[in-house]
């Protein structure tokens, strides 16, 4: 049993991770400023009786003085808006949490001799010119655009991790996470899976941006969460950047058609303008994760979508007495 801190515990990945760690009898403390997270996610965790919630902004220096964090052994640093809709509406908060927030959390790890997992992102590769993306690829990121607040601050977060690993020997591990999905994403999150499933179940237009030929690799949440835990447990991951994602990519139009088919929805698929700097391709090389962690994803997109759809459908029915 370890004393574990999760930043961003009220969010999508953070709450799933907290639930898993609680099941394994860890003492879990979650910090979240609820900027994009949901109190509902936290209530579910508090109900287990083995979770402490601290509503707090980790970019505040005071976070380093919180009594509850003394003796922390593991830090999963997940706090940061992740959906383009949210990080673009919170650019300064996004920059701050990934830079100052990461700095404070690393400082906490240093003081407590804690292990540290940082959730970076496939966005570190920007709009990649090398496909698929290997960890050594340095990326193609635009500093002068609407995605920069996220992409570049995540990259700077990695730099903080590098410095704390090399200067202070903090056992830091950096996960570059590729698109992860499941139920639990907010319906208004704006990310593609939550949008398409919500739209299909509500019989509204399935909104494909551009011509839908851009690709993404979708990893089911259980697979991603398992990888983060393996990174924490495994010393071979110390000082390493590791891609965590599903090595099969789909075009966005293929995903729209698959969601429509699996939900048996009558929604039309409609086409809308492509957001600025939307990456055209994205697919991880996961040989490093296989070698260092013995990890690869197990859940296919079709299985994961079926699980996701079942939960969204039940929630929809609860809320509106609706549908399908
Ligand atoms: P999310 O928006 O659901 O969760 C992020 C959480 O961080 C929210 O609960 C939010 O309130 C909290 N937060 C933001 N700023 C904070 C601050 N200053 N202090 C305290 N809490 C703060 O996002 P998610 O999908 O769960 O992503 C979690 C992490 O994983 C993020 O760091 C994201 O960049 C990374 N990631 C996620 C994906 C994905 O597909 N979900 C892909 C790549 C990387
Ligand atoms: N997308 C789409 N329709 C939507 C939401 C997203 O076609 O309703 C596209 C988006 O333009 C991008 C891909 O789906 O090409 C993934 O978008 P998301 O916001 O989920 O994550 P990203 O990988 O862009 O951060």
TrEMBL record:
Keyword Protein biosynthesis: no
Superkingdom classification of source: Bacteria
Enzyme Commission number, as recorded: 4.1.1.35
Subcellular location(s) of the protein: Golgi apparatus, Golgi stack membrane
Cofactor(s) this protein cannot do without: NAD(+)
InterPro entries: NAD(P)-bd_dom (IPR016040), NAD(P)-bd_dom_sf (IPR036291), UXS-like (IPR044516)
Annotated NAD(P)-binding domain residues: 5-307
Keyword entries, A-Z: Decarboxylase, Golgi apparatus, Lyase, Membrane, NAD, Signal-anchor, Transmembrane, Transmembrane helix
Pathway: Nucleotide-sugar biosynthesis; UDP-alpha-D-xylose biosynthesis; UDP-alpha-D-xylose from UDP-alpha-D-glucuronate: step 1/1
UniProt membrane topology term: Single-pass type II membrane protein
Transmembrane segments: none
Record keyword Translocase present: no
Main location: Golgi
Single GO MF descriptor: GDP-mannose 4,6-dehydratase activity
Family: Belongs to the NAD(P)-dependent epimerase/dehydratase family. UDP-glucuronic acid decarboxylase subfamily.
Protein name: UDP-glucuronate decarboxylase
Record organism: Cohnella suwonensis
